[in-house]
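Before a computer can learn anything about folding, someone has to put a protein's shape into writing. The outcome of that step, for a single protein, is printed below:
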Amino acid sequence: MCLGVPMQVVSVGDGDIVAEIDGVRKEASLMLLDEDVTVGDFVIVHAGFAISRLDEEDAQETLRLMREVFKLEDMA
């Protein structure tokens, strides 16, 4: 199963970003995103691409729901 995950941008490079959630960092391309992204923004990362930007409130609510559904013991 592949999911798009809300992550917070920690660095912005030339056409890519590093984003983090729960201590996990991932690189993602900005190729599919038509908005400017800055450090501190939240983006949906899917398959190595930032696919949309979202506000912090929406990101936190989505993460809360994901943590309820995908409990660590269910992932093992």
